[in-house]
Amino acid sequence: MSVSARIVTRVGSFTLDASITCAPGETVALLGPNGAGKSTVLRTIAGLQSLSAGCITVGDTVVDDPAAGVFVPAERRRVGVVFQDYALFPHMTVRENVEFGPRSTGLPVTAARHWLEVLGVAHLADRRPPQLSGGQSQRVALARALATEPHLLLMDEPLAALDAATRMEVRGHLRHHLAEYRQGTLLVTHDPLDALVLADRIVVLEDGRVTQEGTTAQVAAQPRTDYLAALLGVTLLRGRATGGVVACEGGGRLVVSDTTVSEEVIALVRPQAISLHRERPEGSARNTWHTTVTGLEVQGDQVRVSLAGPPPLVAAVTPAAVADLGITLGAEVWASLKATDISVHPA
To answer: Do 160 and 284 belong to one domain?
Structure first.
């Protein structure tokens, strides 16, 4: 199902005032710095904290409306939650953890067994949480949340407890499962890569207010705040990797350093990694192309130079480089990018 929430709540001197929506089958990432109010949004939607004002609707059901005197307790909201530390019961087995929700709410445990199989942790059913790896714990926590057949899934920094290598692997698995989930998912994160890879749409929260929202591509391409510009200083490209070459959607190709990947991927390119030249450059860069400048935008001490492609990319150079190279709107330039500067992740 969907969620529509106008959330107004106060914690001490901090006031959160934000409107959040999530459609069925959509994954929305709530992105923002620490203290922005992201977890408070999840807590109010889950029913773990009440509103000061506003209204929260899950599907067609109003679950919190102070003006109307409505407050549906957490256990009756049919909302699944995956916490940052997973919050698995250490004294229970994996099977008992996943079956806990259905048993507590009178639902059949068949859904629990289904999700254990789907998420690939059925073989761990008799283990206890201390015997699990970080990636295994994450999948068990997700299975437990989904076993109650929730109308909405909430995930609070679901990859934060994982090391870098495990996070990359689990991120790919999680994207696959979220893409097949028919209900809405609201994901809280401060990691731009999690938001770009996992979400369909991003809502940026700063100081208790929504400062930007849009599709992942829109938000990545046109950050509107200093925080977001610094955080999402990347270009996002989707395509298919084969033998170290990514054929990009919309045309163009990128040579990448990982020659083992043969699947649909997301390639992330930092604008600062792209070099611009008047003439065809010499050197070791595996990606070199002649292109046209389609946009110029000053951001702080850098100038973001939009390039026509294909593929379309954005370079970040100094104002001095703009002057030295004679970069103007419509100017033709050479661009180069090392394969090692392209980060590739499973789509």
So the answer is: no
Quick one: which of 20, 22, 150 has its CA closest to 82? Answer: 150
Among 25, 20, 21, which Cα is nearest to 1's? 25
**Which comes out higher in pLDDT, residue 323 or 167?**
323
Provide the terminal-to-terminal Cα distance of the chain, rounded to the nearest Å: 24
Q: Name the residue range of residue 244's domain.
A: 235-346
- Give 77-98 pLDDT, tens digit per residue: 889 888 878 889 999 999 999 9
DSSP string, 40-85: HHHHHHHTSS--SEEEEEETTEEEEEGGGTEE--GGGS-EEEE-TT
Residue 14 token pair = 């901090």
Per the DSSP assignment, residues forming a β-bridge with 189 are 31
Q: Tokens 């990606």 sit at which residue? A: 287
Dump pLDDT digits (tens) for 286-331. Answer: 999 999 999 999 988 899 999 997 999 999 999 999 999 999 999 9
